[in-house]
Amino acid sequence: MKPNSLKKWNVHSTHQDMINDAAAAEISRSLGVSLPCAELLVGRGCTTPEAAKKFLGKGSEILHDPFLMKDMRKGVQRVLQAIERKERIVIYGDYDVDGVTSVSILYLYLQSLGVDVHYYIPCRKGGGYGVSRSAVDQLIEEGTQLVITVDTGITANDEILYAKERGVEFVVTDHHECRAEVPEACAVINPKQEDCPYPFKELAGVGVVFKFLCAMECEAHPERPAMDCVRHVSYEYADLAAIGTIADVMPIKDENRLIVSLGLSRMEHTKRIGLTELINLSRNGDGKSKASSIKKITSGFIGFTIAPRINAAGRISNASIAVELFLTDDRKKAVELAARLCDINRERQVEENKIAEQAYEKIAADPTADRAVMVLDDEKWHHGIIGIVSSRVTEKHGCPSILISFEDGDDGTGDDVGKGSGRSIVGMNLVEALNHCSDLLVKYGGHELAAGLTIKRSNLPEFRRRINEYAKTCFREGKPEPVMEVDCELVPADVTMRFAEELFLLEPYGISNPVPQFAMYGMTVSDRIPVGAGRHTKLHLTKDDLSVVAMYFGVSPMELDFSTGDRVDVLFNLDINEFRGIKSLQLIVRDIHLSEEERTVEDSERELYEQIKNGEALGEPEEIVPTRDEFASVYQFLRHEFRAARDILSLPQMVRMLSRQGISIGYVKLKFIVRIFQELNLVGVDEEREDLYRFSIVYTKNKTSLDKSNIYRRLKNQYSKQQ
Q: Which helix (H) or strand (E) holds 449?
């Protein structure tokens, strides 16, 4: 059974709501789309056919004038001046996907102007996040005169002042949260500055650089119409700008929606050799780079397949591998670099899973860990991986989390420094929370829902206390209940290839335009099959005339609390699977549990068991008191399951599995059998949580009398009066 799987579903539109929605019906008729597609458009604020048509055609979004951004003109002029003076220019970037794509597009653009440009990305393990004095010293030694930061620099006040005093100037481009005072640079270009009039504040770091290139092109070619300059920049660089925007989880609205749409379109026919090889290798998945048939590239493919491979380089190796992949025009080198990224990503996955298990063990072992904010630390965690694990912890437990790595070990003074990464939920701005604890931190920065920090070990206990104190002011009504948003309920007739193909019309997806999620109730499980060495589950689900495959990634069949023949409620994305040129519908499961009717029955049986355990003689004796033959049947069943390596079973699941074998034993009787087995040590029983057990068979030559069980004797005496 998947832990915490029974989350609240917030269903925006039931099947009946959809039928009764006049706006959806009108959109469906006017645009020729299915009713569920029209309902999705209404849910995204398009209540008229005209509004829906604009949304689908991206007709409501425009690219704003880049010179509206504070310091944009100053920054552009300083770079053009550096080019004219033949100064040594270095691009200073971050090591995540946003930083890598930012470095790449600015480098390629300046290179196209004939500039002898260089780039610097700190190593996560050595240099750490952001601009550092040691990096400034290195750049000075190399003769650098101008540094352009991308996706970093907005909080590097001391470091940039230090560089300025030593004769090196900075142009800062960034999109992270700003502090009250910004660095003393030639130009600070960040739409989040309080006095910046730019109308859209939620560009990615690469989005800010994209606008910088548009401004550069306009300034460098005043004789050309501004729109022509923007088209040129879009044609050349929107693909990488889209990757960075998606990977940094920026809201897909306003300019971001246009940038991502243009970029996805360019990627399908990209001539960028490195990107082509990475796409081919990722799609084939067999370690070989071969041309793939042209498939539509979606934001999901970028976010879940391409971005992790780029990100892995900066997390556990060197981000320059990814930059070089985008800069190269040598196919052989591109193949080698793309393969290296895929190898590094596999290393990252192994390390991530190891750290996640350790984090979960820490939470389970510490009764005080269930706080408003989970702050976990360890000596051995790779600090390049902890941000991803923090996301998993936050998703699993529904609360903010911060993981801190003291990789260099304890120096005995308490002054050794740990690097942390955190993820938050709606309701608590993580940067503001860290600002509340700023006197305890060496440095920090980030976004509302994701941030990084550096902290001395001696400050960790007080930091843990204070950030939880702050969180309580954000969540005054207690820890928020995890909620999964559902766009609408579907019935079998809605699940068609036509509707699945219409979903591409709503791309690109992301924050503010999430991938549609649907619910269907009362589906029957006809089969469940382990895939991917048992890490994932393939389900065959049916309802009425619908028979469809559903993939549940990251959850093995052993973790599910249902089996074949059960009825379940499913929350899913609708997908099209293409294999050897054949397309078929597929559900991607996001949550699944027994149907509400079956859960109600289980709840009443649990209540009945508690009443009987407390001494009440309810029900008929033959329904409650197990016979010797029933003990034997359950023992043989558990022995068979244990030999088949199915050692984790839930009690309701066992009731249904036994029933399908012709053994009719109800919940209450079976629970008493399990407790008696445990008491007599006939079967090893570890309760993982309520009604979920890990069984092991205890082999013994001697027979054990059931009457030695206090539970069994008390149960028989309890019902002997009725007989």
A: none
